[in-house]
C-alpha cells in the first residue's frame, strides 16, 4: 500500500519516511501542500495521506477540504499531522475532511495503530469500490439484455409487417410498370390532337402520374428493406456486416425522427470493408446517435428557425472502421459532458428520454466490440459522435 507524506520540515519528513519504510510501505514524498494536492487528484493517487497541518501556501487542512470537494475514483484516507492539540483545532481538521489525526511529536506506537486503522478502512473502501464496479457492469449487461429482448420482439413484429407489405407492393409495382409500358404503346397510336381538352390533359398528365406511383412504390420498397435489415433476429454471434448499408437502413427507419428538423448528408467510403460485429446492436447504436442529433437540432431550431444538418461519414482508419455523425444542434453543455455516457443521465424532458441510449451505445461499442466511442462538441455549434469498430471484431 502506498502512503503520501506531505511535510515541509525536513527533519520531521525524514523521520516519518524512515519509520514508514521500516514498516514496509511504499512512499510518495511531498514538501508542500500544492504538490500533495496534485498527487492526490491524479489517477494513481496513494490510498493513504499523512498531511502536515502547517505548510506554506496550501496547508494540510486546505488540502483536505479541496480533496473532499472533488469526486475521485477511490477515496483517500487522510491523517493530519499537527502540533495543535486543542479540541477546536481537531474539530476544524475533521470537519475539513480528515479521517484522523496524530499530534507532533508523534509516538511511533500511536502512529502505527492509527495507520493500521486507516489501512483496514482503505482496504474495505477498495473492496467496496470493486464490488460497486462489478455491480455497474452487471446492471449494464442486464439493461443491454432487456433492451435486446425488447428489440427482438419489435424486430419480429417489424419483420412480419415488412414481409406482409413486401408481397402486395411487388404486385403494385409490377402492375404499374405494366401500365407504363402499355401506355407508351397506346400513346404511340393516338392522334397528335383530339380536339378534346380534357382528354389531352389526361394524355399529358398520365405519364407523370405513373412515374410518381413508381417512385412511391420504390420508396415503400426501400422502407421495407430497411425494416428487414433493422429487424434481423438478435444473435450473440458476430458476423461480417456492411456498415454503410446499416447506416442507410437506420436512416430510413428513423426518417420520422429527423425529416422535419434536418437534412441528412452521407459521405460513405465505397471500399469500406465488412466489420465483424453484432448487426442488431450496431443498428441500435446508430439509431440512438441519429435520434439524439435530431433532438439537438430541434432544440437549436427554437433559435435559428431553420432546419439543420446531420452529416454521416465512414472511413477506414488503420484496422478500424470509423463512423462520424455530426449535427448542427445545440452542442453539449460543459457541465454535462462528463456524464453523457452515464446510465439514466438525460437532459431531455420527462417522458422524452430515458438516458439509456448512449450508455448502452458505450457498452455495445467498448465492451462488446472492443471499439471506441467519443464526442467532439461546441456549445451552440453542434456535436460529432465518433465510433471506431475493429474490422476483425473483438471476442471479449
Structure, explained:
This protein has 396 residues and is α/β, with parallel strands linked by helices. The protein has three domains: 2-106, Response regulator (Rossmann fold, 3-Layer(aba) Sandwich); 144-234, Helix Hairpins, CATH 1.10.287; 235-396, Histidine kinase-like ATPase, C-terminal domain (Heat Shock Protein 90), CATH 3.30.565.10. It is 53% helix and 18% strand. It is built from ten helices and twelve strands. It has helices at 10-22, 33-41, 60-69, 87-96, 108-189, 197-230, 243-253, 255-258, 279-304, 357-368; strands at 2-6, 26-30, 48-52, 77-82, 100-103, 239-241, 262-267, 275-277, 308-317, 320-327, 372-378, 382-390. The strands form three sheets. It has a five-stranded parallel β-sheet with strand order 2-1-3-4-5, sandwiched between helices. A five-stranded mixed β-sheet has the order 7-9-10-12-11. Strands 6-8 form a two-stranded antiparallel ribbon.
SSE layout:
Blueprint: E1 2-6, H1 10-22, E2 26-30, H2 33-41, E3 48-52, H3 60-69, E4 77-82, H4 87-96, E5 100-103, H5 108-189, H6 197-230, E6 239-241, H7 243-253, H8 255-258, E7 262-267, E8 275-277, H9 279-304, E9 308-317, E10 320-327, H10 357-368, E11 372-378, E12 382-390
Parallel strand pairs: 1-2, 1-3, 3-4, 4-5, 7-9
Antiparallel strand pairs: 6-8, 9-10, 10-12, 11-12
Helix pairs in contact: 2-3, 3-4, 5-6, 5-10, 6-7, 7-9, 9-10
Amino acid at each position: 500500500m502506498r502512503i503520501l507524506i506531505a511535510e515541509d520540515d525536513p527533519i520531521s519528513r525524514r523521520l516519518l519516511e524512515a519509520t514508514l519504510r521500516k514498516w514496509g510501505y511504499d512512499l510518495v514524498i511531498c514538501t508542500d501542500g500544492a504538490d500533495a494536492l496534485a498527487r492526490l487528484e491524479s489517477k494513481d493517487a496513494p490510498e493513504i495521506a499523512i498531511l502536515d497541518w502547517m505548510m506554506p501556501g496550501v496547508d494540510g487542512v486546505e488540502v483536505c477540504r479541496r480533496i473532499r470537494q472533488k469526486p475521485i475514483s477511490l477515496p483517500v484516507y487522510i491523517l493530519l499531522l499537527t502540533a495543535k492539540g486543542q479540541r477546536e483545532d481537531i474539530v476544524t481538521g475533521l470537519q475539513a475532511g480528515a479521517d484522523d489525526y496524530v499530534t507532533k511529536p508523534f509516538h511511533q506506537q500511536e502512529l502505527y495503530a492509527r495507520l493500521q486503522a486507516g489501512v483496514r478502512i482503505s482496504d474495505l473502501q477498495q473492496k467496496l469500490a470493486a464490488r460497486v464496479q462489478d455491480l455497474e457492469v452487471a446492471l449494464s449487461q442486464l439493461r443491454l439484455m432487456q433492451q435486446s429482448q425488447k428489440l427482438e420482439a419489435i424486430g419480429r413484429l417489424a419483420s412480419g409487417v415488412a414481409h406482409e407489405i413486401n408481397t402486395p407492393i411487388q404486385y403494385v409495382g409490377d402492375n404499374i410498370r405494366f401500365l407504363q409500358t402499355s401506355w407508351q404503346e397506346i400513346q404511340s397510336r393516338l392522334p397528335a390532337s383530339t380536339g378534346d381538352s380534357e382528354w389531352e390533359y389526361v394524355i399529358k398528365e398520365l405519364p407523370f402520374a405513373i412515374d410518381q406511383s413508381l417512385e412511391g412504390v420504390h420508396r415503400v420498397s426501400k422502407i421495407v428493406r430497411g425494416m428487414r435489415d433493422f429487424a434481423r433476429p438478435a444473435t450473440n454471434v458476430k458476423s461480417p456486416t456492411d456498415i454503410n448499408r446499416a447506416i442507410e437502413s437506420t436512416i430510413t427507419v428513423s426518417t420520422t425522427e429527423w425529416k422535419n428538423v434536418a437534412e441528412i448528408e452521407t459521405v460513405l467510403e465505397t471500399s469500406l470493408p465488412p466489420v465483424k460485429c453484432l448487426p442488431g446492436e450496431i443498428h441500435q447504436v446508430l439509431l440512438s446517435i441519429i435520434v439524439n442529433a435530431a433532438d439537438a437540432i430541434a432544440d437549436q431550431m427554437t433559435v435559428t428557425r431553420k432546419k439543420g444538418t446531420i452529416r454521416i461519414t465512414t472511413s477506414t482508419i488503420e484496422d478500424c472502421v470509423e463512423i462520424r455523425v455530426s449535427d448542427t444542434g445545440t452542442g453539449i453543455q460543459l457541465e454535462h459532458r462528463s456524464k453523457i455516457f452515464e446510465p439514466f443521465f438525460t437532459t431531455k424532458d420527462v417522458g422524452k428520454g430515458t438516458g439509456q441510449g448512449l450508455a448502452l451505445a458505450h457498452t455495445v461499442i467498448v465492451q462488446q466490440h472492443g471499439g471506441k466511442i467519443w464526442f467532439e462538441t461546441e456549445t451552440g455549434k453542434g456535436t460529432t459522435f465518433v465510433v471506431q469498430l475493429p474490422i476483425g471484431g473483438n471476442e471479449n
